[in-house]
Amino acid sequence: xxxxxxxxxxxxxxxCSLCTAVRPFGPEPAGLCTxxxxxxxxxxxxxxxxxxxxxxxxxxxxxLWRYAEILPGVTPVTLGEGFTPLLPASRLGRELGLHxxxxxDESVNPTGSFKARGxxxxxSVAAAQGVRVAATPSAGNAGSALxxxxxxxxxxxxxxxxxxxxxxxxxxxxxxxARVRLVPGSIADAGRVMRESLGQGGWFDFATLREPxxxxxxxxxxxxxxxxxGFELPEVVIYPxxxxxxxxxxxxxxxxxxxxxxxxxxxxxxxxxxxxxxxxIVRAFERGADRALPWPNPETAASGLRVPGSLGDFxxxxxxxxxxxxxxxxxxxxxxxxxxxxxxxxxxDACPEGGATLAALLHLKQEGKVxxxxxxxxxxxxxxxxxxxxxxxxxxx
Amino acid sequence: xxxxxxxxxxxxxxxCSLCTAVRPFGPEPAGLCTxxxxxxxxxxxxxxxxxxxxxxxxxxxxxLWRYAEILPGVTPVTLGEGFTPLLPASRLGRELGLHxxxxxDESVNPTGSFKARGxxxxxSVAAAQGVRVAATPSAGNAGSALxxxxxxxxxxxxxxxxxxxxxxxxxxxxxxxARVRLVPGSIADAGRVMRESLGQGGWFDFATLREPxxxxxxxxxxxxxxxxxGFELPEVVIYPxxxxxxxxxxxxxxxxxxxxxxxxxxxxxxxxxxxxxxxxIVRAFERGADRALPWPNPETAASGLRVPGSLGDFxxxxxxxxxxxxxxxxxxxxxxxxxxxxxxxxxxDACPEGGATLAALLHLKQEGKVxxxxxxxxxxxxxxxxxxxxxxxxxxx
Lengths: 397, 397
Known about the structure:
The structure is a homodimer.
Chain A: E1 11-16, E2 22-23, E3 39-43, H1 45-51, E4 86-88, H2 90-96, E5 100-105, H3 115-128, E6 133-137, H4 141-153, E7 156-162, H5 167-175, E8 179-183, H6 187-198, E9 204-205, H7 214-228, E10 236-240, H8 245-260, E11 269-275, H9 280-287, H10 313-323, E12 326-330, H11 332-346, H12 352-366, E13 375-380
Parallel strand pairs in A: 5-13, 6-7, 6-9, 7-8, 10-11, 10-13, 11-12
Antiparallel strand pairs in A: 1-2, 1-3, 4-5
């Protein structure tokens, strides 16, 4: 039976993403650096380079835990997350005259979104460290994923969601045994209420980038892109960006893989997509700023993009610029049209965030920023099932 | 890039499951045998036996198309279906004193259910044969799957669903571009209305077992069980049975694998689970009958089990008896409790049909029909997301 035991991890230490202070990875759960910035996991890559050749991955378990050496060495709390399909979008590609169009479909993850990746790894570490109560603010999908992995690990889970979160997310998290509190305002307000109402100690904060291991789960999207493209990275990656963990994670994966000799120096152009009603990274990118100011009164139907600020803003902006990419905002109407088109032309019932990547692609194409034969990867970050329960949505005639 | 081309299929012919009449697999779409029974695909297994060793599967694509030799040789219309995780249910297993408890989680398939398997294969064949209009009656998940694969293949899709089908299924299918007609009564009534209203010709009938290739997709669940258990089949398989294609398909897979020398003669005991309000197979099993009479006024919240009769009834009953298995019905309340328990204890947001397998297991345990160390596989056939939108459902306090 293929049940994966503790992994031969080469995790070495935690390192601050801003001040580069180092701390050991040990039995105590780690939060932010004392300077307030996110900690990142660092590995003995020279050791991995010797022990693991990229061809050795072939035949490993079809989940993100196939990359055990560059993940923390704990018993996985797993539901089979990751190693999602990279699907050719041939029909849509022909219509658009883009012959290398691909969709990384994250909707087939447990709980229907890419959030499963981060939570599988973060909960695995936290459970091994003896955490009993898990808490996070969430726009919806992260909450459901924490609820699922928390349930599987026997943790108590406390979620704080904006009261505008579509109802299917709330019901899902409750079915999975989480306590869900609805909070007026955005995910930032939900985070504040969480920290006030749970008080000091006795619980662990799984909020985006406030612990170092959700990003380790998310970075596997970068490893998979490489592996699924025969270790020739695609030319363009279009990514819907709320907290941005996935984009930061993929950039980290590209760094690691280059150090391992698995990929060369050519990287994809990383394209950040946000909503017109909440575009802090786009604004900062356009202004040439290194950090993004919080977006006042964020508004968009794509709950995963209703994120007024990210602790990793500087990391996102750096990756986009280093990659020669860009950042752009799309209207909610365009996202919905994008979702509808992905559904009707490619059979993928995409969430609005996934639809946003197609909307962005149409802009990039019009501006001549993508080539007809480039491999362009759209990230569909989650299923459409949780969004279109009650509203008129995108129902066809 | 790992894009799979046409497969080195060893498909040989189609054979009637009842009268054993043979017809070639050719350019014309195939429906039922002239005697009215389902046709089954037969392969040149001696050729497969020589060409493909079970170890060769290692490293193949993580979808059901990894079993290309024993699938039809057409270009796959694929969304990455199959090769779903077989998850240890350790917490639940400890509670129940069952130490080999496993869950085959089909909810991570495209469109969130096991129906993706059958439709991927059947649509691939039909598209290659030039079918333009696809139609099926459905309890929900088969319709959404046909909508998705039909969209991907550029087919027009016509669905006929019972008007009691939960709304999320209907909205999903419509987002995927299908025309959905709601019909009073059960799936049997929906099938009748379909055949009346679409008339003769110009469309192809994808209803359960009315064409030979959905079962080919479903049988891969059996191949995966074997591969994921190191080719030592588990002792017990508990399967929620509506039309029964999956159970018939797994039994066919076991036959094929035995002929290939991949597994020995020991088979799992196959356990059919149905709803108390619709249990035609259970009734026939208890009466010692070879065929099942249609169930009048079927009633259950598990729409996938609200199937009053199956064209494959005799094949289901034969497999269950040959395996030394049994058939039992559970109450809707028990299913819902089962779903809730799978969600809260294992992190799997199971559909009611998935919950029914756990409910059945509790009965089997009480009756001493399962051993503490046997490997018992519960099939969660789909996600809970499409069920619990509006009703009080199983919401915790």
